[in-house]
Amino acid sequence: MQYKFAIGVEYSGTAYSGWQQQKHCVSIQQHLQHAIGYVANHPVNLICAGRTDAGVHAIEQVAHFETDAIRDERSWILGPNCRLPKDIRIKWISRVDESFHARFSAYARSYRYILLNSDVPSAVFHDRCSWEFRALDHEKMHESAQILLGEHDFSAFRAVGCQARSAYRNVHSVQVSRQGDLIYLDIIANAFLYHMVRNITGSLVMVGRGEKPVDWVKELLVGGDRSLGGVTAPAVGLYLQRAYYPEKFNLPNFSKNPVLF
Known about the structure:
Layout: E1 3-11, H1 28-40, E2 47-48, E3 57-67, H2 73-83, E4 88-96, E5 108-117, E6 130-132, H3 138-145, E7 150-153, E8 168-179, E9 182-189, H4 196-208, H5 216-223, E10 238-244
Parallel strand pairs: 3-10, 5-6
Antiparallel strand pairs: 1-3, 1-4, 2-3, 5-9, 5-10, 7-8, 8-9
């Protein structure tokens, strides 16, 4: 008999080529499938809520796999974690019905981008946040970000290599806040395009530096020309926060906003 399980995974993406398994690179998926397969005593295939790029982190990535192995919850969590590197951890596991799909059952995802706005970059957190030495007005960045709310064609914030059939996405919430030298961009949408959050961040940074007016983001949306937007922000500051699912699946949620200091 086949069983389907969903798992919540936390990882630092610094050392990896991203989520997706590749022949000549080390990936998060590769490590997880090997560790879970060892406990299941057979190869497993993991499907995730959203594939993250090289250097991108996750607070609660969700993935699912199928198995005929019978193990208790403790074994499914501790067993793989004992075989995983220290920067990848399974936080929870939940049995789900056949209708569950980590990617297609999710109705929204959230990301947080962390930017250190200070004269000198951090030595301790150099691989946990990006850095901008020029002063940023986070209030103007927040005001500009509100233009992104709702459903739009996000071609202006889509990387050239994006394979999505449609550039239309629905942004449910977006906020830019500041705590000391740290600026946080928090965004929730039904789905995201390739490099969408990082491209949005790069454009908002130009607004924060005073190089572009607050309503410039509207011009970008309407024009749909990626080449006119800000540079793509570094992957190092991006965190997949969580994926949102219908209550009927009864999934745990242990995600918290990532903070540094």
